[in-house]
């Protein structure tokens, strides 16, 4: 969050220099800062409105309090959209075995890498994992997942490029059931072809999984690249139209000034952010901790 923090605070400092109270000019500046940080227009307007209400209620608000109030409002938004217990993200429900995660997202966002890192984390937590290479449109996606499976030493089911994704998902879940695995992670849908095709493909994958596990998948995770800012919003919009998304993983937050996208996407789509990617190492996929995120965003140097 270093780049986001630096950009955010330098702009916020300039907005309030020489000001003693939070007036209309400061709020206009703040609106621009939040939008520039890719918080998104709708979420930005919501935050500004809440601050305006506090100014009206308290009658007087000085600029030194602004970052405290901002911190409280952003933390509040993230809390509203947290429907899972993030602190137990690698603890699985005992009545759902194997626990099936279907992962979606466009190519290039770090989807396959996220799956590899997830497999590593679950294995480190003592869980047995099976991967399914059902993103069969692009050979590199299949090959990359096989490499990750070898790296973290977990089994992977692959039928190669151009195979039927549903067939791969079927065999993956069957293998997991046969070996009494704890977790199944299936890589899917590496492209936004047409929404109809995407919807049909994901629906078919779900149907074949449900032949073995009636309530599968238990989690449909959308992976988004945090460094793309507004493009991540567009992708979230398209995928939520095509299928029900139950959690988000947002990658590449370590090298971008667009970290505000986490706040906007969580707020606009009402989907909890479960994981964030903050580096290349296998351990650099972290459970999203909203308190730590807000602290990092507002940390003064």
Automatic annotation (TrEMBL):
Subcellular location: Cell membrane; Cytoplasm
GO CC annotation: cytoplasm; plasma membrane
Record has Nucleotide-binding as a keyword: yes
Enzyme class at the top of the EC tree: hydrolase
Residues that bind GTP: 105-112, 187-191, 251-254
Catalyzed reactions: GTP + H2O = GDP + phosphate + H(+)
EC number per UniProt: 3.6.5.4
Residue ranges annotated for the SRP54-type proteins GTP-binding domain, each copy included: 272-285
Main subcellular localisation: membrane
Keywords, alphabetical: Cell membrane, Cytoplasm, GTP-binding, Hydrolase, Membrane, Nucleotide-binding, Receptor
Protein family membership: Belongs to the GTP-binding SRP family. FtsY subfamily.
Quaternary assembly: Part of the signal recognition particle protein translocation system, which is composed of SRP and FtsY.
Role: Involved in targeting and insertion of nascent membrane proteins into the cytoplasmic membrane. Acts as a receptor for the complex formed by the signal recognition particle (SRP) and the ribosome-nascent chain (RNC).
Name the UniProt record assigns to this protein: Signal recognition particle receptor FtsY
Species annotation: Nitritalea halalkaliphila LW7
Lineage of producing organism: Bacteria, Pseudomonadati, Bacteroidota, Cytophagia, Cytophagales
Encoding gene (name): ftsY
